[in-house]
Amino acid sequence: MTMKEVRTRFAPSPSGFLHVGGARTALFNYLYAKATGGKFLLRVEDTDRDRSTEASFQIILESLKWLGMDWDEGPGVGGPNGPYTQSERLPIYQEHTDRLIKENKAYRCFCTPEELENKKKQAESMGIPYLYDGKCSNLSEAEIQEKLSAKQAYTVRFRIPNKIVIVDDIIQGKVKFESKLIGDFIIVKSDGFPSYNYAVVIDDALMSITHVIRGVGHLSNTPRQILIGEAFGFPIPQFAHVSEIVGADGKKLSKRAGATSVLAFRDLGYLPETMRNYMALLGWTSPDGREFLPDEELCKLFDIARCSKSPATFDVFKKLKEEEKESVDFNKLDANGLAEYLNPKSKLNWMSNKLIRDIPIARLGKEMVPFLQESKIPNEYKSGEHPKLLEILDKVRVYLDRLLQAPPYIEEFFLEDIQFENEEAKNLVLEGNGKLVAKGFYEVIKNANAVSADDFSAAFKTVGEKTGEKGKTLFMPIRSITTGKSHGLELPILFSLLGKEQLVKRMDKLATQLQIDL
C-alpha cells in the first residue's frame, strides 16, 4: 500500500510579530514535512479583521524567510489549493455553511451580544460555566424568514451532537472530551467571517493536511474541530500538541519573559541555523541525544513522536529581578537593550559560538556586513570581503556568541586616537609594579622582532622574569598601556595583528596621557 504524503501547515494570524513560540510551531511542521518527504504549507488566518494587519503579515513572512523555512505552498509561492489567505476564501466557507444549515447541522442565531453577555454574567454569578442555551436552535422556518426580512443580525452556530470525542494525540496521548460541556458554538460571526475553529477545519481538509502540529494551548479547540470535520465527512488529520515554552522563571513566555520577535535575534547577530537548531530542541530530543545538529541532520532525524509533554525552558534571557518585572518590556527594546538581559550561559549562545567558529570565514564576513555599517572601522572594510578584515575576524570569532559583539573587537585594530577608557584602566599601570611592567614590555618590544602570537607570548615571559610579576599583575598593566582598557581580546593575538610599529605608537601615546616615561 502506498503511504499517504505527509502534509503539514503553519497558519499564523497576522496580528503581531512572530515570536519564539510561533516560530517553533512553524519549525516543527517544517522539519516533520522534510523528514518524511512531505510538503510544508503556509496559510494566513486573517479572519479577525480588528487585529489583522498587512504590516504584521509582512513581518511574519520576513521572519520565516530569515529562518530559512521555505514553504511548498502558500503566499508568494501559490499551489493547487489556494488561495492561502482566509479572507480570500469567504465564498468557500459560505458554501460549506449553506450545506450545514441545509443538513440541520448548524443554525442561525439571532441573539444579540447584550443578551448573550447577560446570560454569561448570570452563569458566572451562579458559579457555573457558560454554555449557550440553544434559544435559536429550534426556530421555525417562518420565524427565521421573518427575522431575515427584518434584517436582524445573526451568527451561525454549530449544532453539537451528544457524544464523547476522543483525541488520539501523537504527543499528549488519548484525551477525552464530553461534547455536552462544549455547547453549540459560533462558526460564522455576525460580520460574515468564519470563526477560527470553523475555517481551520475546512482549510485543512481542502488542503489535504495530514498532520496538525501546534501548541498544547490549542488542545481544547480540537474536539470542536473534530466534530465539524465529522459533520462534513472530512478525513480527520493526526494531531500533535507540543509542550508549552516557559521562561527562566518557569512561567509562560510573555513580553517580560522572552516572548520577543524572532527578528530581534537576527538583529542581535544570531545566525538563522543557530536559531533553528536551538528551537528544535525546545521540547524535542534527537535519538542519540546530540544537541548541535546541522540542518541536513535535523531534516532527517526529526520525529514529532519524540516530543516531550513537559514544558520546554527558553533560557536565552536572564530571570528578571523583582524591580524590573513591571518596567521591562522586551518587545520595546532594541538589540542593544535586549543584549543587557541575555543569559551568557544559554544553550543558544553555546550553539551560536560553535557555529561562528566553524563556518567558512568568507561566509562570516558576509554575515557581518549589517553589523559593520555603524562601526568606526574605515569604509573600505565594511563590505565584509577585505582580506585584513577577514584576518581579524578569523582571530576574534572565538570570542563571539553573536555577531553584534564583533564590531568593538574589530574597531580595536583601527583605533587612531587611543584613550584610556576609565580610571580603572589607568590605575593598572600607576599602581603597584604597573609602571615597571609597562616600561619593561616597552623596552622588550622596541628591541625585539616580534611578529607572531608566539613571539609576543615570549616577550611576556621575558618581562615577567625581569620584573618578578606573573598572572594578572603582569598581563593587566601590559593590556592597559597598549589598549587603554582593562579587558578585551587575548593579547598575543591582538598584538600579532596590530604589529610592532602600531604597538609602540600606542604605548607612547598612552604613556604621555599618564605623564610617565617608558
From TrEMBL:
Primary gene name: gltX
Q: Which HAMAP family match?
A: Glu_tRNA_synth_type1
Return the motif ranges for 'KMSKS' region: 252-256
What family classification does the UniProt entry report for this protein?
Answer: Belongs to the class-I aminoacyl-tRNA synthetase family. Glutamate--tRNA ligase type 1 subfamily.
Which NCBIfam families does this one have? gltX_bact
Record-annotated Aminoacyl-tRNA synthetase class I anticodon-binding domain positions? 366-509
Glutamyl/glutaminyl-tRNA synthetase class Ib catalytic domain sequence ranges: 5-316
What is this protein identified as? Glutamate--tRNA ligase
Please give the GO cellular component terms listed in this UniProt entry: cytosol
> Which InterPro entries does the record associate with it?
aa-tRNA-synth_I_cd-bd, aa-tRNA-synth_I_codon-bd_sub2, aa-tRNA-synth_I_CS, aa_tRNA-synth_I_cd-bd_sf, Glu-tRNA-ligase_bac/mito, Glu/Gln-tRNA-synth, Glu/Gln-tRNA-synth_Ib_cat-dom, GluQ/Sye
